[in-house]
Specification:
The protein has helices spanning 116-119, 132-137; strands spanning 7-14, 24-27, 32-37, 44-54, 60-67, 75-77, 82-84, 86-90, 99-100, 107-111, 124-130, 141-153. It is elongated, with a radius of gyration of 16 Å. The longest helix is centred in the C-terminal third of the chain and has 6 residues, at 132-137. With 154 residues, it is mainly beta. The strands form 3 sheets. The protein has a 5-stranded mixed β-sheet, with no helix packed on it. It has a 5-stranded antiparallel β-sheet with strand order 2-4-11-8-9.
């Protein structure tokens, strides 16, 4: 009889320091919950639409993300084991794929004018992906971690 494998994973997204003083801001980040994972054959994708904007001339900003893994790696942990995940950024709301972010490396050249707070809408997607290949070899357990997203004037 095959053993039943269950993973419960959750990632907490947090903005470490508002960058509004620099003329950029991000709002609308929320926790990402994967719940109990029973299917290991497909990637699990969680996307949230957020507001990222820059009040600077041209609306330019960069985005940098870091995880709670060693050296800022994008990993969830259950204490003894680590489960890597991917982070993507898309300058359009409602997307399930985007440009891959590398931990602690700024993705520059992003552009968004001060529109979403005025119009009370979202304009950007933050995407978190647990790849099937990683889920397939993961140790059962409850996983959690923190993802920090920082916008900076560019």
């Amino acid at each position: 009889m095959a053993a039943i494998r269950r993973l419960a994973a959750a990632a907490m997204l947090a903005l470490t320091a508002p960058a509004y003083a620099q003329g950029v801001q991000i709002t609308g980040l929320s926790d990402v919950a994967f719940g109990t994972i029973g299917s290991f054959g497909t990637d699990l994708v969680r996307s949230q639409s957020i507001c990222a904007f820059s009040g600077l001339l041209g609306g330019r900003y960069s985005v940098t993300a870091s995880g709670s893994g060693t050296g800022g790696a994008f990993t969830l942990s259950n204490g003894a084991a680590a489960l890597p995940y991917e982070v993507q950024w898309n300058t359009t709301a409602g997307q399930s794929s985007g440009t891959g972010l590398t931990a602690n490396v700024a993705l520059s050249g992003q552009t968004m004018l001060l529109s979403c707070p005025v119009l009370q809408t979202t304009n950007t997607s933050l995407i978190v992906i647990l790849r099937a290949a990683q889920l397939h070899v993961a140790t059962a357990g409850n996983y959690s971690g923190t993802l920090t997203v920082i916008l900076a004037a560019n």
